[in-house]
Amino acid sequence: MSKKSAHFETNVIHEGYDSKDMLGSLATPLFQTSTFTFDTAEQGEARFAGEEAGYMYSRLGNPTVKVLEERIAALENGERGLAFASGMAAVSAVLIALTKANDHILCSTGLYGCTFGLLTLMEDKYNITHDFSAMGTKDEVRSLIKPETACIYVETPINPTMKLIDLEMVAEVAKEFGIPVVVDNTFASPYLQRPIELGCDIVIHSATKYIGGHGDVVAGLVVGKQDFLDSVAMTTQKDVGGIMSPFDAWLLLRGLKTLPVRLDRHCDNAEIIVDKLRSHPKVENVYYPSDKANPDHVICSKQMKRGGGMISFELKGTKADAQQMLNHLSFLKIAVSLGDAETLIQHPATMTHAVVPKESREEMGITDQLIRLSVGLESWEDIWEDLAQALNKL
Ligand code: LCS
């Protein structure tokens, strides 16, 4: 397809690839190769000098990976995309590229546990400090920006509390100070939320989740401005080296084609499960972005197409009750990760966010009774039946 469509559903299938370039192959070919041959020594010299376009070595670029990079850039409406071996390889490549020793990062109150771990590492090694903010108002954001603040880093929806950050508002404040806003868009996916269209600068995905969608790949993606990503490609991608394998790119291209179809189904199921959970006597609180009982639903309606497939809820009870509830499930899977066809359930305080000290967990709103549910594509009747029988046994 030569011209980008106005429709996301078409672009997930066609952007970045033209079968005419590949002997008519409908599916993107898998270039499972580490290196590329040169006709002559001079050609090798010209490629490394950047004087001749072409591939050299798969850590520096690979045709299958490039299709994925172009497709995700088109879907997020950014200038360039880059692919990484994992979501954390993407997060670390971006944060290392944006900071130097003694800088500061302003973060959303609530981040994936390993992102929190990375921030701690950067502070211990390079005195790159950070603050957390709920970012409820412009003044709340402004009050924590310092001369050495290198970027604002947010997740929205936040893992696992499902709190939202108003991206347009944060981007407006960041522009006053001339600093970039980095958004981890993993929980929403570009189908539901496109931060660059709201004025943010860089988007990160753990592509392990909705983009892959089938629980068979660990991968990361970044989208942003050409200049910035050109510099990342030549430094924290090429030289730190956490690149994506061609086979993983191939799996993600396959997964992406059904992203809108899958996400709508995840959302349909999640909306029903939210209602059912809310009326269950053992459930204290339910957190879901588009839920009218949730104060953040106003932000949701501004920036998300729908509420997504992730729900968290608090039980009336203790950590032991939360663990028992998981143990009572019969076919729903106890597992971290999310965005797969299978419904996955986990206990953040002891799993995804176990590395976060209890005090910080509490500040983020991660209680011992909080359970996170990644609603799958099964029939909602079966999902609810299993959840209900497990809750009823408490
Ligand atoms: N960002 C967010 C919001 C995530 O949820 C995760 C992983 C990452 C980045 C890192 O991506 P990865 O390196 O795993 O591809 N979140 C996980 C979770 O909630 N359960 O298991 C992994």
Write structural notes for this entry:
This protein is an alpha/beta fold and 394 residues long. It has two domains: 8-256, Type I PLP-dependent aspartate aminotransferase-like (Major domain) (Aspartate Aminotransferase, domain 2, 3-Layer(aba) Sandwich), CATH 3.40.640.10; 259-392, Aspartate Aminotransferase, domain 1 (Alpha-Beta Complex). The chain contains 15 helices and twelve strands. The protein has helices at 8-14, 41-48, 63-76, 87-98, 113-126, 138-142, 167-177, 189-192, 226-237, 246-256, 259-278, 297-303, 319-328, 358-364, 380-392; strands spanning 80-84, 104-108, 129-133, 149-155, 181-184, 202-206, 220-224, 283-287, 310-315, 333-334, 344-346, 370-374. The strands form two sheets. A seven-stranded mixed β-sheet has the order 1-7-6-5-4-2-3, sandwiched between helices. Strands 8-9-12-11-10 form a five-stranded mixed β-sheet, covered by helices on one side. Helix 3 (63-76) runs parallel beside helix 10, helix 11 packs parallel to helix 15 (380-392) and helix 13 (319-328) crosses helix 15 (380-392). The relative contact order is 0.13. The model has no long low-confidence stretch (mean pLDDT 97). Ligand LCS is lined by residues 86-88, 91, 112, 114-115, 155, 159, 184, 186, 206, 208, 218, 220, 336-338, 352.
Give a quick set of tags describing it:
single chain, 394 residues, alpha/beta, Aspartate Aminotransferase, domain 2, Aspartate Aminotransferase, domain 1, five-stranded mixed beta sheet, 12 strands, binds ligand LCS
